[in-house]
Each structure stands twice: as C-alpha cells, then as structure tokens.
Amino acid sequence: MARTFFIAEIGINHNGDIELAKQLILAAKKCDCDAVKFQKRTIEKVYTREYLDSFRESPWGTTQRDQKKGLEFDLDQYQEIDRFCREIDIPWFASAWDIEAQQFLRQFNLPYNKVASAMNANDEFLREVASEGKYTFISAGMSTYDEIDNAVEIFRGHGCEYELMHCNSTYPMPKQDANLRMIQKLRERYGCKVGYSGHETGRVISLSAAVLGATSIERHITMDRAMYGSDQAASLDIGQLEWLVKDIRLVETILGDGVKRITDSEMKVRKNLKGI
Fold this sequence. Notes:
The protein has helices spanning 18-30, 43-46, 49-53, 64-70, 75-88, 99-105, 123-130, 145-157, 182-190, 204-211, 238-255, 264-274, and strands at residues 5-11, 35-40, 55-58, 61-63, 92-96, 112-115, 135-139, 162-167, 194-198, 216-220. It is an alpha/beta fold. β1 (5-11), α1 (18-30) and β2 (35-40) form a beta-alpha-beta unit. α1 packs parallel to α5, α7 (123-130) packs parallel to α8 and α10 runs parallel beside α11.
C-alpha cells in the first residue's frame, strides 16, 4: 500500500498567535505528518460589511470584523510560517477563500493548493486555482455530483492534477454521517485519487478511511480541544494525532501489496505441516 498523505490542518486553530502556530507545526512534524495546512481569507471580500459590523464577542472585540481579523495572519506572520516550515523541513500550504487570498499565497511557491468545500462551486475561483497547475486537493463536502462534475471538468480543462477529498462539512461531524463508501464511489466516478477530510471527534473514522484506500487524510489539530474557536471541538489533540498517524502507518504495512506469496516465516511451518 502506498503511503497515505497526512495533512495536519492548523486552519485557524492558532487563534492569531504565531507562536501557537509554530507549536502546532512542530507537533505535526514530530508526529510524522506529511504537510501542514492553514486558511487564508481577505476578510472584506469573503464577508459583507453588514455581517462584519454585526455583534460577536471574542477575545479581540465585539464585532464579527474584530473576530475575523484576530484570526487572520498577515504577510509578516506567513513569512515566519514559511521560514519555520523550511527550517524543520515540512511542507505547508493553505486553502484560500477568495481570489485575492489565492494570489497572496502565490508568493510562497507552495507545493499544493486546496479548494475548500465552500469554494468548490465557484467557477471563477476554481479557474484561478487550476490555472496555477499545482497538485490540488478538492474537498467535496456539502456538494452535489453536478457541482463536483463541474469542478473536475475545470481542472481537467486546465490540465491541472487534482485529488478529491470525501468530506462532511459539519463541525463536529456526527459519526453516523461519515458515509465512507463514498471514497470508492468518487474513485469509480472520476477515476482519480480520493482522500478524506474529516471533522469528526476521535480516530476510528479516519483510520477506517485509510483502510478503505483514502490516498490522503486531512484532520484539524489543536493543542487543546477546549480552546476558543469554532474548529477546536472537531480537532485532534496532539496525543490523538500521534496515535492516528501511527495507526495509519501500521495499516499501510498490514494491507500489504495483495501479491500471494509464502512468507519466510511460513516456510518452517509449511515444512513441518505439509512436509514440502
């Protein structure tokens, strides 16, 4: 079995704190993750002025704007993320939520792109991402087949390699809604790699996705699930992350390559029991 690409989604769980972000990056590296991922938004492009002016109490103030800006890293902070990831040798990338944010990320020459479920029906955005020609993970949460068909057509039209990710966009996701058989269904329908982006609590569903052949697993990570933030409860703490990655690496060994052979350890038993 090929190595499952494990993405540690930091997202906005850094709560605007660059040192916390670096702690999470380092933890992902120590847990043998293949990459870390953030989220990038141009606040004024993603949200309406009316929404941003509305009330929301948070550590940064009393409006939605205060909260959104408090969670958003600026250029200097992303430069530090880029420097730190290069220093400890772990790739990073981000899911942009608007075209300006996607263009902002280009300056870092990132190895991958990510289309969040919320953006997979935005044709203008999809064309912008596909035009870069980078390997792109496309989440298929809260989407119809028609919407996925359209996204796939755009990426194929640009000759941009992509991987779909089965996803349920609830935080946390009820376990009965996992519907992991969709991994095989998407693989059959689109003839491409299919991963799993999980928002559940615990490890069992993500491990099951790996058993079912998910080529990538993406999970939100946190230092403490009780911290402030809308994604924290659907995240893995570092202990859970370590065990999940270890279990997935074990699954890769257990599943093997599907070639029938007599192993070296069987040969002695064979001679004793079969006499040959």
